[in-house]
Design goal:
With 90 residues, the protein is an alpha+beta fold. Helix content is 24%, strand content 23%.
């Protein structure tokens, strides 16, 4: 059986993607956030099941921008980037 965690590769720290705040409008620098490359929707679904307070934001439209920052992603055209952060209750 394939391990779903094999589909998740940690990427650059959020500081590397701070400019995305103005593009996406939903990323907040003050929120604890990690960005992961997820190469399967099944892996993203597993993450959502692990912790219901994890917010998953798909940023497929930003692929061309991010591929300039990380050449590793330039070969990936249909994959998604996922922003995972804990949604804190107010």
């Amino acid at each position: 059986m394939k391990n779903s965690w094999d589909d998740i590769i940690p990427l650059l720290p959020l500081q590397e993607f701070m400019f995305l705040t103005s593009v996406q409008g939903k990323l907040h620098a003050s929120t604890p956030c990690s960005i992961f490359y997820v190469n399967s929707l099944h892996a993203a679904w597993i993450l959502q099941l692990l912790h219901p307070l994890i917010c998953i934001e798909f940023m497929v439209a930003l692929m061309p921008t991010i591929s300039r920052v990380s050449p590793l992603l330039s070969l990936v055209f249909t994959s998604a980037l996922v922003c995972l952060h804990l949604m804190l209750p107010w």
